[in-house]
Amino acid sequence: MTEKMWCLKRCDLFAQLTPVQMQRIESRSRTRSFSARSPVYLPTSTADSVFLLTSGMVKVCHLTSEGKESILMFVEPGELFGELAIFIGQARDEYVEAVSQSTVVMIPAKEIDLLMSERTDVAMGITKMIGLRRQRIERRVKNLLFMSNRERIVHLLLDLAQQFGREDNDGIHLRVKLSHQDLASLIGSTRESVTVILSQLRSEGVIDYGRRKIVLTNPARLARSVNRQPSRNAHPNPRLLPAFGTG
Fold first, then answer.
1. How many domains is the chain built from?
2. Which of 66, 111, 165, 193 has the most CB atoms around its CB within 10 Å?
3. Four-residue CA torsion sign, 151, 156, 159, 160
């Protein structure tokens, strides 16, 4: 089995494909690697491919009218991104940047479209993925409109704990490494405001943080502070994580 075939089989959407379908996808796809902080694609790039991340991590971003970065989503291995190319087929609005050394399989959008016409399970899987991402981004927009900076930060930390959390004796560690500016870009705030709020939360004993490291030391209390049910547990397997935001 080739490395590309192995990577495709690791994606739940493709796990049940027939050998003929898998070989067709593999033969028409290509693999590329990107160093940390390098662009995978840029705004106005032609939306003719869907990407499967096989190693590393990438972030999907949008530039505001003022030229500021707004982070829409983080993607981990085994997840698709750029999937709207299946339906739109025009220039992209967002851009994607590698957070760490990353490798992707670039699959022609027309091949995914063909696969969706052949297999209802693939079509349903992609539809559910897009729906879930839209639901999350809509919730973030509502938070942005109706919540204070503190409430937005708390909800964001709880969301990240559900998606990128690793439980340990001292709390839930976020596997995604975020700077204060990254957090600000995720909630539409400023780095200075985020720093002040994180300091307050640490003094209250509900989180701890260091250089690009965040631990939810009392997630139940943190959730109660925004009238939210605490997460039952963090996902131990990165491949089972839903994507954060939208693509």
1. 2
2. 165
3. negative
What is the CATH classification number for the domain harbouring 16? 2.60.120.10
pTM over 0.70: yes
Query: Token pair for residue 52?
Result: 């499967």
CATH number of the domain residue 170 falls in: 1.10.10.10
Looking at the fold, whether 109 and 198 belong to one and the same domain comes out as no
Structure tokens at 195: 């720093």
**Angle CA(95)–CA(97)–CA(98) in degrees, nearest 5?**
155
Asked, for residue 110, whether it belongs to a domain, the answer is yes
Domain that holds residue 225: 143-240
DSSP per-residue string spanning 99-166 = SSSEEEEEEEHHHHHHHHHH-HHHHHHHHHHHHHHHHHHHHHHHHHHHS-HHHHHHHHHHHHHHHHEE
Q: Is 207 exposed, middle or buried (0-12, 13-18, 19+ CB in 10 A)?
A: buried
pLDDT digits (tens, 9 = 90+) for 20-33: 999 999 999 999 99
